[in-house]
Amino acid sequence: MYKICNRLIKNEIVVASILFLLPLINFINPINIKQLENSSLFFLFLFNLSLCFIFLLIIFLIKNFLKKSIDNIYLISSLFYLSLFLHNDVKTLIDKINIYIFNSWRIEKINSLYFNEISILLILLVIYVIIYFQRKFISFKEIFKTFLIFLVSTNFILVIYNFYSFEKNIDREQLELKNLNLLKLDKSNNKIVKKNVYYIVFDGLISLENAYEQKVFKDPNDILDIKNKLKDLKIEYIPESTSNYNYTYLTLSSIFYLNSPLDEKSPKYKDNAYLFPLMLNKRNLNVLEKKNLTILPKILDKNDYKFYYFGNSWHQCVNDSINNINCFGKSSNKFLNSLEVFYSKTPIIQFTQNLFKYSSKENTSSFFLNNLETIHGVIDRDTANHKKGNFIFVHSIIPHDPYLDKNCNYNDIFSLTSYSYSYSCVLKKIFDITNFLNQKDPSALIIFQSDHGWVNKFSSNVNRGDFIYSEKTIIDGKLNKNIKKEFNHRASIFNGIKASDECFKKNGVPLNNANTIKFVFNCIFNYDLNYQKNNHFIGLDAKDPDNYGKLFKLK
């Protein structure tokens, strides 16, 4: 082992290559594998391998052109690339320094506009210090290389251990269609009057009552004022609504399947193959169609409705006209989307967006929320041509972290952002959207809903990480009783519907996501879909390999 390490230390290009590929090694983990298609993962592997080769080739050519030996230039360059993936962590460190030092000196805080530049300068400063020490101290070269070998080795071991734990504790059977509770619907034979449907999901938007309990609002009169505004806009606010599941991918699956596909009695599943968003790839849609199983875009197509999808950085719209998935503007590419996800924590994305001027993507939820008048005009003209109804589905990432500031903007100074600000910004959007549609599309059916609630236990998103509860979810095979209140917070969702009185009278009020989409179909197409019980199921992610794939019913 010592001889192997010693040889690696002496082979600078090998160490530099491994160091360059380290972000990819850490990215391809059980959590990401279950959410990305195999083709996207394979593309990322080839892209990084090619980029590494080009990267090292450029350094080699520069080195030969300058005809000057630069100690450990391959290692230092790879280290700089690796450090870009720590960009967000560096910005967080700057924010903490900004809070503690500058506040204590009573000096105005550093403007967040310069946080990106400062973080990159700090990274460059560290690289310069390494170069300086290498020139001054001969022994530092070997120490530096040894440290890099240790860094790479520990990361490799950690990744292998994570995969071992994941594979060991998960059932070998993948998620199969036979294990899902799915519907079979044919085209409605009833006479229908085509009305546009706007189904807008705000990620992590809790109910008004839950917002007051978690101190998003301090005055109960604020809640009353909001309810009155909603009523004036003809939106039926439905209290005591709950999400079907505690995770986005599960809840959106229940909307797209028009039914809760999994419950506590379902077999343990290994992956998300037929859950959102992988359910929407062409291969899976073809399988669903052959088995005559209902999925939202296809059943809408049977009823002469065009399905528009506005996504976000997690899942953007990829145009698929055969399966009735339509993007507004230019379609996204799943391979480019995977690159954006991979580089999302680096300044590379922002740099390329500024360079190629593509930051405002027309198929995203943020574009929808800020350009509704433009979108409505285009869709309205399109409707006149195809004589179909329109179903517009929007999945907005707000008020989910990263939070907004009081001006409804993203801000690198986390202390100036909060869930409360984001929540208020969403409410303002709801009022603005409804006001506009009441004038331009008064007969439209509008849904404002959340995919799950939120546990607002942090004042900012600095330490939140990927954890949705403050303690371990499962203890001894059962839900942790110590955090039952948090389970309820995560289950409680905002649910507001604008529909005709006749529709409410016939179908009652839906209290969860799956029943809401059934409500829509019963109203628009005169189906007679029965509501499911208003249950909330708690799932786990791959960070808990013992329990991932199981569902627990909240009682």
What's the total count of β strands?
12
Strand content: 5-15%
Name the helicity range. 40-55%
What form results from the Cα inertia axes?
Answer: globular
- Provide the low-confidence segments as ranges: 104-114, 169-174, 458-465
Concise synopsis of the structure shown:
With 555 residues, the chain is an alpha/beta fold. The protein has 21 helices and twelve strands. It has a six-stranded mixed sheet with strand order 2-10-7-1-4-3, sandwiched between helices.
Structure characterization notes:
This protein is an alpha/beta fold and 555 residues long. It has two domains: 2-168, no CATH class; 177-553, Alkaline Phosphatase, subunit A. Helix content is 49%, strand content 8%. The protein contains 21 helices and twelve strands. A hairpin with a 2-residue loop joins β8 and β9. The longest helix is centred in the first third of the chain and has 31 residues, at 138-168. It starts with a helix and ends with a strand.
